Amino acid sequence: MPVIDINADTENLTLTVTAEFAAPIERVWHAYSDPRQLERFWGPPSWPATFLTWDHTVGGRADYAMTGPHGERHRAYWEFLEIEEPHRFSVLDGFSDDEGKPNGDLPAMRMDFTFEPTTDGTRMVTSSRFDSLEALEQVIAMGVIEGTRMAMSQIDAVLRDLREYAEGKGTTVEFIDDTHISITRLVNGPRDLVWRAYTEPDLIKQWMLGPDGWEMTECEVGLKAGDRYRNSWAPVGDNEGEPFGFEGEMLVVEAPRRAVQSERMQGTDGPDILSDVNFYEEDGATLITVIMEFPDKDTRDGILATGMTDGMEASYQRLESTVLAGESVA
């Protein structure tokens, strides 16, 4: 976890975040000055940021939006006040409306980012200054402290070469909290093709099968928010097991970057599970990150105990050996 301290100073009206990275100062600066890299961690899991404009000059402005797992969308902006590469920059950070105009009902703050080299890498200190105690308390109540910790936990994957970070590790599960997990898998193939493999029924049926001995008997996809989907599986031949399936609704679709869906076992009243799938490509490989949200810890543990992770790994291996290897792409 890069964050080593978050301090809210109600006397001086500041919120200070201290983090340390195992990367040189130039690499950390690049992550904060490239919007495509910055949006991979400027927002907690399930609330990723998308930078809509980017003018990285003094007096310039960057507009961004964070989209939640149910399609909620919050707009914000940076106005660049000072830039001294690679040691510091300052911005006015505020919320905005759908047209990008500042939202006066929510607090704005000055944020000062400083970077300094250390023996093992780089230390960053971010100090946010507020106009009033009410404004500081408002952003704390909005969850900025925990959100910052969760957002910064994603930066290690950004600072390291993607293949070095994830190749050969298979399907990896990380516990975020009692009701959220993160599942990652690096696959060797471009993002556009991986997206097709997730959204075209003829391709889905060739790889999304779990362990050997199963087939997909039904595949109805949803391609936009509000669409319903339905998938079913059954054992092949004499293999043991009962047919089963999932169904649900697409909540967010941002091709080819992100798809969020609710899902529940067919023929039941739930519980509903949220599956937030994100795709990032680098050097011809695509990192698939699945954030799953469960209604409670018992549901989380029960689903993991079914062998879900092993089934996903078998499917991803099949994805690489068929669709991404070019054996079954029309």
UniProtKB/TrEMBL annotation:
It holds the Pfam family AHSA1. Residues 22-159, 190-322 form the Activator of Hsp90 ATPase homologue 1/2-like C-terminal domain. CDD domains: SRPBCC_CalC_Aha1-like. InterPro entries: ASHA1/2-like_C, START-like_dom_sf. This is Activator of Hsp90 ATPase homologue 1/2-like C-terminal domain-containing protein. It comes from the Bacteria. Belongs to the AHA1 family. Coiled coil: none annotated.
